[in-house]
Amino acid sequence: MPPIAADPPGPPVAGRLLGGPSHLPATASLTAWTCRSPALAPDDSAVAFVSDQDGSPRVWIQPLRGGGEAWAVDTGPQPVVDVSWAPTGTHLAVLVAPGGGEHTQVWTVQPHGGDLRLLAAPASGSASLVRWTGRGETLLVTETSSDGMARAVLIDEATGARQVIAAGPLLRPVAISRDHARMLLRRGPRGRRRMYAVDLVSEALGAHEPSGERPLLPGLPGSTEDGALSPDGSTAYLVSDAGRNRAALLAVRGGAEAVVLAERPDAELDRFALSADGRRALLVWNAHGRSELDLLETRNGELRPLPPPPADVVTSARISWDGTLAALAAESPQEPSHVLLCELDQGGYRRAAGAGRLPTAAGAELVRFPARDGLELAAWLYRPPHAQGPAPYALFLHGGPEDQERPAFNPLYQNLLAAGIGVLAPNVRGSGGYGRAFRQADDRENRFLAVDDVADCAAELVRLGAAHPSRLACMGWSYGGYLTLAALVTYPLLFRAGVVVSGIADFETFYERTEPWIAAAAVSEYGHPESDRQLLRALSPLRALDRLAAPLLVVHGARDTNVPLYEAEQLISAATARGLPCDHLLFEDEGHEFRQVANRITFVTRVAGWLADRLHA
Fold first, then answer.
1. Is 70 exposed, middle or buried (0-12, 13-18, 19+ CB in 10 A)?
2. Residue 531: Cβ-neighbour burial (10 angstroms; 0-12, 13-18, 19+)
3. Summary count for the chain: helices (H), strands (E)
4. Rounded CA separation 12/3 (Å)
5. In 3D, which of 440, 480, 415, 425 has the Cα closest to residue 611?
6. Residue 458 above 90 pLDDT?
7. What are the residues whose beta carbons fall under 8 Å from the beta carbon of 213, sequence distance 6 or more?
8. Are 91 and 109 in contact, with CB atoms under 8 Å apart?
9. Which among 73, 241, 584, 589 would be 20 to 30 A from 602, CA to CA?
């Protein structure tokens, strides 16, 4: 195999797709705006949310009384990722992504604009908001520096006073009691996270010091991803699969043993929100990809199912300060993300913001089938309308690896369907939502089995009579981009074309150039860059690129620091050096995700056109 140049040619031309694809008419899904991350005002008079209805994600506020019009909150030109309402109602905390990249910052602003303040923006690092503490206007924030060290910081919005209350690698605070005397602190890499109760010496902001750190659920295998504290800090609520296969809700009171408050053998606890008074909790279950909701009365342990939401997937859930109302972000294949309000006592839903259902959009069909070793896989099948007999199909592989493909709104799928191309979006081994054993089934050496799963998904499409065996494409984002490339070089005659979006090409260069905290967290998934060097080389598709036969389209954001642009540059350089067809599309103002509406439109139309040219030829 010829050597790969250490310094490949200059970066791809921004926004330009080499090869000149046909231009397909865009479907209505491309211009449908979305609403995400809703947060209720403390008095339930309004809901704030992040929407891209004017072309870029920013904060909007919809009054809930009197029928007033929604308004946008001026936080500057940078894309907004999240918003949270202060308990006093006078300010919003806003998470901003400068330049569309991954190094986010925390700002605060008044609901009608004005008094815009930068609270957290570590140099060459990233900040994220955890929550308002419920005491005055104090924010709990995580700051991660360029060397991968994280800090839990309390910040007074009014004065800017700040106090670091914990520090270390792979660390995140998840909750703090109202008196600031106890904190829940999560440590460890993804899939193997541990939760700790931390007692803080002083109640006064500016004088906190950790006085002790007690592990919760000690010695149990698994991971504790999220949690909350009762207002007085006496009870820790944990979302965990420690000691079990599926994530459940557990409670630890004082130094007692953990008590299971809610669990299901057929679903994982996906989201959890606790009211400010600790009286009620909203539970969102992931049942085979769709969302189901329960209401928990924490005082007596009563668990009551809520009616099914009028959407397939709930992506965000927050409960009002008095525990009577919940704000949800929800979506379905035919309906973009929108804001729903749920009256928790009556169990009714009403729409607060967002575009409506798209009558021309296609739904998704859940299919299950065995992999070659007998492990059951699940996938969402989108059949092209009016298809007569086997049709062209694209396999789309999600990121993570522990993300999960769910029946959500995806303009790319809808535009591929409009172009006569079906979509199979599988959850191969390593995906979330199916229990810990399935999620860990692709770790390290088992990643080769996940590559085999991709081929088994293609075989299932043909067995179902849905796909034409010579008109298959493979594509994926992030880890899915890696898995796409790995499948293309492992099974070079299976796919006619491949699309790699923000994907890893070589694990050695990924570990060298990604964020330090991402590299540290990835070891449990992929292997250690030193002690597992040979395994990582065997897993890296760039080192087997001489087996590639299908034309490639490589898509990347120039500001991506999770999977740096170098992964795309060296892939394009190596493919070009071998005379392989390799087109590319670069977005200068995007990171690992594509946030700007105009860029997402370009991405979807170019990819759909490129695949149509190759699968219909």
1. middle
2. exposed
3. 9, 36
4. 21
5. 415
6. yes
7. 185, 196, 197, 198
8. yes
9. 73
- pLDDT tens digit string along 342-352? 999 998 999 99
What's the sign of the alpha-carbon dihedral 240, 245, 487, 505? positive
Return the SS3 of 59.
Answer: strand
Q: HSE-up of 492 (CA within 13 Å, CB side)? A: 9
Residue type, 150: A
Strands (E), 201-258: 210-216, 224-229, 235-240, 248-253
Cα distance between residue 185 and residue 251, in whole Å: 15
Q: Which two tokens stand for residue 295?
A: 């209401």
Q: Is the pLDDT of residue 184 over 60?
A: yes
Q: Rounded to whole angstroms, how far apart are CA atoms 560 and 592? A: 5
602 in Cβ contact with 27 (< 8 Å): no
How is residue 13 annotated by DSSP? P
d(CA 606, CA 16) in angstroms, rounded, equals 9
Tokens of 391: 């049709």
How far is Cα 37 from Cα 24, in angstroms, rounded to an integer? Answer: 32
Would you say 407 and 364 are in contact if contact means Cβ atoms under 8 Å apart? yes
Q: DSSP letters of 373-394? A: TS-EEEEEEEPPTT--SSEEEE
- pLDDT for the residue numbered 209: 45
What secondary structure letter does DSSP report for 100? G
CA distance 111 to 48: 9
Is the pTM here over 0.85, yes or no?
A: yes
Strand 105-109 and strand 92-96: the pairing is antiparallel
First to last CA, the chain: 31
**Which residues are registered as beta bridge partners of 260?**
250
